[in-house]
Amino acid sequence: MAEYLAPLRDMAFVLHEIAGLGRVAQLPGCEEASADVVEAILAEAARFAGAVLSPLNRVGDRAGTRCHDGVVTMPPGFGEAYRQFIDGGWNGLGCDPAHGGQGLPGLVSAAVQEMWKSANMAFSLCSMLTLGAAEALERFGSAEQKAMFLPKLVAGSWTGTMNITEPQAGSDLGAIRCRAEPRVDGSYKLFGQKIFISYGEHDLAENIIHLVLARLPGAPEGVKGLSLLLVPKFLVEADGTLGPRNDLRCVSIEHKLGIHASPTAVMSFGDDGGATGHLVGPANAGLEAMFVMMNAARFAVGLEGLGLSERAYQQALAHAKERVQGREIGGAATAVPIVRHPDVRRMLMSMKSRVEAMRALAYFVAAAQDVATRHPDAAERQRNQACVDLMVPVVKGWFTENAVDIASLGMQVHGGMGYIEETGAAQHLRDARITTIYEGTTGIQASDLLWRKIHRDGGAALGAACARMRQTLAELEQSAGADFAAIHAAFAHGVAALEEAAAFVVAHATQDSRGVAVGAVPLLNLMGIVSGGWMMARSALAARRKSDAGNADSFLEGKIVTARFYADHVLAAAPGLAWTVTRGSPGALALGEEQF
């Protein structure tokens, strides 16, 4: 397996030309994010990702984690890598300096996170969950909880988890049964079992802070009766030192298709009288707090889709340049590297163009989140938050569906050797497969997009996004050349298709909810493809501007060519998806259950 090399040139291009790092650096609290500082951070992150994390990716896949009597052992090398990770301050890169973080913009953090996920997705999950727990405590924890737990979580010396799923309650959170009984000292005794808890038990850190959804006595039925409780692996004394082991244990870890180095635990609480927990936020308001973690995780999972896609593309490209087989069509009668064959080039360009579209869209959304959080003007904050809310299900859902397809294409480029584990191509597909499922399946993301982000506001947020897309269309019209004409034509059809689908949803969702719901996932894919096309169009325009300013080189030329490919091969699917959204329900709903 080839080691990961961070695509720093493309990352820098997107940061500056698409996401607007210069504007983000002018936001309050972001002043340290100058171009030279960010360049140094990315260079060092690239070194760590390539030299330390990437070599452990294959090690972790082969060795996996081990569980014996409730003790989970990580694969060789992971403990030392994690120590280097937290000693380098990487865990707290985007966290509040008040708790020991570096306070860098989410845009910079997103670029660094992409590297971790490309280099070693299983390793990156630990930090992802820890930061989600820290954010939930920052928003909803008491002053005492923040002082006690946030410095350790931000530093990474303690890690965090989110405990939601139970055997009988997957996506239906209203079916959660884990219960919490009050004690006289204000704490609670927890009883119940949680499943699919990533990094629920491991040997990387001295303590694990579990955030657990549970029901208090007399709580309302359904999701309105859920409370969030902080349940540490080891109890924490008043002076911050660790006390005795809490009444919780890892019963087992799952044997999974992929991410073998990420321990997915079955956790049992209260087998010996009750696990001690402390309420986070108000009683019966736990879902709001947990969604802080979940929304952060959904964006991060989208970055996993991007990272795995980049890794699969790099490996496929390296193989295609090295593998000599077959004669070139229209060429000499000698064997050539398979990268010279048209269909292999098509597959590689399909991978490359979608990776670049995803990267641009991810960084664009991260920058919008920085503005929504830090901009001094309330209207500007609100406008950007609406954009973020609209795009997060797209980032999560479309990116991860792409990752599965791109990793599969990577195997196809390898031919028969892609199906052999020793090449490593299959690992990317196995690792990617979970990303479409956890933190809400693609269907759940699509329903969120359809009902909460489009139907609820009458399509206002999407309309605002389409208006900005049409501004880019106007710029494309002024750009000469066949490539820009093709990009304009395909993008114009894509925007029109998206507007048609959105108008259908707004007009029919109330009276035909089932029929509209059938088109939710096609709508999400349509939104992703067109949003990606928007980013690719902007990339092509930026590349043209830089070339016209005297900076022309093969990289900038490649940005325009890749955008053209995306227009012809990816954006071309948009009208068909709009057809499915607006006309696809009869074929899906006509059959009775007995006819399946």
From TrEMBL:
Gene3D superfamilies: Acyl-CoA dehydrogenase/oxidase, N-terminal domain, Butyryl-CoA Dehydrogenase, subunit A, domain 2, Butyryl-CoA Dehydrogenase, subunit A, domain 3. InterPro entries: Acyl-CoA_dh-like_C_dom (IPR025878), Acyl-CoA_Oxase/DH_mid-dom (IPR006091), Acyl-CoA_Oxase/DH_mid-dom_sf (IPR046373), AcylCo_DH-like_C (IPR036250), AcylCo_DH/oxidase_C (IPR009075), AcylCoA_DH/ox_N (IPR013786), AcylCoA_DH/ox_N_sf (IPR037069), AcylCoA_DH/oxidase_NM_dom_sf (IPR009100). Keywords: FAD, Flavoprotein, Oxidoreductase. It catalyses: 3-(methylsulfanyl)propanoyl-CoA + oxidized [electron-transfer flavoprotein] + H(+) = 3-(methylsulfanyl)acryloyl-CoA + reduced [electron-transfer flavoprotein]. Residues 467-590 form the Acetyl-CoA dehydrogenase-like C-terminal domain. Its cofactor is FAD. Residues 40-156 form the Acyl-CoA dehydrogenase/oxidase N-terminal domain. Residues 284-448 form the Acyl-CoA dehydrogenase/oxidase C-terminal domain. The keyword Flavoprotein applies. Residues 162-269 form the Acyl-CoA oxidase/dehydrogenase middle domain. One of its GO terms (molecular function) is flavin adenine dinucleotide binding. Its EC number is 1.3.99.41. It is an enzyme of class 1 (oxidoreductase). Pfam families: Acyl-CoA_dh_1, Acyl-CoA_dh_C, Acyl-CoA_dh_M, Acyl-CoA_dh_N. Involved in the assimilation of dimethylsulphoniopropionate (DMSP), an important compound in the fixation of carbon in marine phytoplankton, by mediating the conversion of 3-(methylthio)propanoyl-CoA (MMPA-CoA) to 3-(methylthio)acryloyl-CoA (MTA-CoA). Belongs to the acyl-CoA dehydrogenase family. This is 3-methylmercaptopropionyl-CoA dehydrogenase. It comes from Sulfurisoma sediminicola.
